[in-house]
Amino acid sequence: MLIHSKLFRIILFFIFISTFSFAQKARIKGVVLNENQLPIENVSVSSPTSNTITNKNGFYELEIAANVEVIISYYNSSFKKSTYKVNLKPNEDFEWNPILGTINEVIETVVISGKNRKINGATALSPVLLRRIPGGNAGVENLIKTLPGVYSNNELSTSYAVRGGNYDENLVYVNEIEVYRPFLVRSGQQEGLSFTNTDMVQNIDFYAGGFQAKYGDKLASVLDIAYRNPKSFHAGLEASFLGGSIFAEGVSKNQKWSNITGVRYRNNALLVNSQETQSANFNPSFLDVQSLFNFNLNTKWNFSFLGNIAQNNYNYQPTSRQTNFGTISEPIALLIQYEGQEKDTYTTFFGALKSVYEPNKNNKYKHISSIYHTVEQEYYDILAQYRLGEVDANIGSETFGNVVFSRGIGSQLNHARNNLDALIVTNEIKGNHKLNDDNAIEWSFKHNFENIRDRVVEWEVIDSAGFSLPNPELEYINDQPYNPYFGPLAPYQNVRAKNNTTINRFNSYLNWNYEGMIGSHTYYVNAGVRGQSWMASNNGISGNNQFTFSPRAQFILKPNWNKEMIFRFSVGVYNQPPFYRELRASDGSVNPNVKDQKSIHFVFGHDYSFQLWNRPFKLVSEAYYKTMTDVNAYTIDNVRIRYEANNNATAYVYGIDGRLNGEFVPGVESWFTFGYLKTEENQGGKGFIARPTDQRLKFAILFQDYMPNIPSLKMYLNLVYNTGLPGGSPAYADPYLYQTRLNDYRRADTGFSYVFKDAKLGGHRKWLANFSEFSLGFEIYNMFNNQNSITNTWVRDVYTKTQYGVPNYLTTRTFNLKLSMRI
């Protein structure tokens, strides 16, 4: 009992000491604003014992002594100095949002990027632009597709390819938590909403290659998104013909609790009904609810929870289609009558708990746990009866434009009963240590458990002129009606598999940052290494234990010249251990011994900031080269990727990107983007051919404008031009025999918005007193009504034995109205 009593007193003593140490501190935080209620960056906030500066959003957080009177000073050279006297209780969190008056009248400028983004080569995007820029699938991805190195030829999809990579080679983080794409989605019109809720976004950083070791094991890019931590109550609503969203955010009186919640609904019927395929029932609808909770236990501990529930329903009942293709001298038409329907459902549950412990300013520790669960169903039975005919091209003819001769008739029956249930559980511990003013290190240990239960039942029967076409892999010859056919009756394609796949992964990284001087020039060094060990098993059969090692380095030089320039060079090994999609071959079987795809990146970049017309501009250019081994060859059908799962290819990518952004119109940011790339692969030593993502040229313009005499009337233009992708090949065909390309992708979306009120306009209207923003917009998608195609439908002419690639066209010109309001 005596021992227990002493132990009890020792525990009480340590609790007392710990409580006493916390009790001597308090925290003051808030947002520093100017006279127009806009946040101010780089304001020095100081007390007698500590200091900090405001970030891009004007936010600051300062730890001060408790139970004593403290004077807080706010200073920026462009504004009048302000002070505030405060006396806080122990552990108290206090919010103060000072307003600084301007010393002189200054011209408003756009902050293009902060110091950290300049150093590491990230492209920073404004959250406000996400809501304003029009697009068929507006959001983060809509803006990313205008950046250099990013390619997409499907406005209905949130997927994108970066510098020759495919849709599965991009990392996406929200609040340092990796998020995933659906597994079974085959076309862009099935995708719906991306994970990122634009109403909740605070910061967006995008890396198109050469990224640091602290980011995960993918080959192409990183999208790093941070959600807002609310400081006061706000709410907003957006509604249009495509759906709507609503959000609300707030903070408790003691500033310890905060929450932001968003609900989104989208129905793509307006867009998909503009396609050439007519449908009796076409109702792709998508709904999700997302919420972020934050809890500040004290000045050192913070906890947060991010949750998401999403459901995508895709109901499709086509009736007919007519596609005209060919040449002016030899026009051809494909006419199809459909029977049957498709019903797909994708339901996703996601939850992540994150804790941050910051014992002092030089050390920070994080623990992140997340669970991702998706249940997906893909059911369809669709009979397509087609007629391939020649079109009368004689302008004076009575049958001009009609099909006058049929080259072939046939039918195609597609059937699927696909189910997938995936569970991904992640646990990670991270550390960040500032050794001194010039040195910092970061590290992480992470474990992933992945379990995917998948049933694949797909078959296709093709009938041409009354004769069933057998599977091309069979050795039997069917030349009816000249000779009887004695071979087996088998579908043209038949995929049946049942997989229960488990993958365990352990990965870690160590990252070092250093800042130094070479004479009067500043340089930055980042060096790091990643490692991952994983083992996959399927249906109880385990594969080999595999390991990757990925060293990476980046050197940045900022010369002390009159002209502001930055030079960057990055080199590193990038490995992509296979995810479930890469383990599953086109026949549905899983190969647990698929190797990681290996790539070496060389990236040289140059940033040049300058003044033009007395306004800020920035020119960013990068040249890159990637060499790849153990490549897992694949084909793309719309947005579905089918891998060979055999690592039998090598590949390379090289190119150059450029982006000029700045205030072409005073007060608003716009940019122009250019890119060139070439990527080829060699499958099994048969020679190099274009990869499915070999999209050579890319031009994009994102432009904002307003009428000088009517500043409330604003215009936004989103214009993208990409040269054509390879057109693909029929299933089970040799891709070396099909090297045609799709037509160029040309897309222009524009929006006009009348702003009744925002931070600068409409403050005098009494009926808008309760709103911080209120606007009404009109949008035109595919303004010039270009016919863009995403893939080819392969149709066989039974007479000439020719396979025709019939383009699958995307959406035509569409109009939309949008209402936005915020309080």
Descriptive overview:
6% of the residues lie in helices and 58% in strands. The radius of gyration is 29 Å and the shape is globular. A hairpin with a 2-residue loop joins strand 15 and strand 16. The chain has 823 residues and is mainly beta.
Q: Distance N terminus to C terminus?
A: 62 Å
Radius of gyration: 29 Å
What percentage of the residues does DSSP assign to strands (E)?
over 45%
Largest sheet: 22 strands, antiparallel, barrel
Oligomer: single chain
Overall geometric form: globular
Q: DSSP helix count?
A: 6
- Helix/strand-derived category reads mainly beta
How many E strands?
43
The helix fraction, in percent, is under 10%
Topology:
Elements: H1 2-23, E1 25-31, E2 44-46, E3 51-53, E4 59-65, E5 70-75, E6 82-86, E7 93-95, H2 115-120, E8 123-125, H3 127-132, H4 140-144, E9 150-151, E10 161-162, E11 170-174, E12 177-178, E13 201-207, E14 221-227, E15 234-240, E16 243-251, E17 257-267, H5 269-272, E18 278-296, E19 301-326, E20 331-360, E21 363-391, E22 403-434, E23 439-464, E24 467-469, E25 493-518, E26 521-538, E27 541-542, E28 546-558, E29 564-576, H6 580-583, E30 597-612, E31 615-631, E32 634-637, E33 640-643, E34 649-665, E35 668-683, E36 688-690, E37 697-707, E38 710-722, E39 745-757, E40 773-781, E41 789-797, E42 802-809, E43 814-822
Parallel strand pairs: 1-7, 11-14
Antiparallel strand pairs: 1-4, 2-3, 2-5, 5-6, 8-13, 9-10, 11-12, 13-14, 15-16, 15-43, 16-17, 17-18, 18-19, 19-20, 20-21, 21-22, 22-23, 23-24, 23-25, 25-26, 26-27, 26-28, 28-29, 29-30, 30-31, 31-34, 32-33, 34-35, 35-36, 35-37, 37-38, 38-39, 39-40, 40-43, 41-42
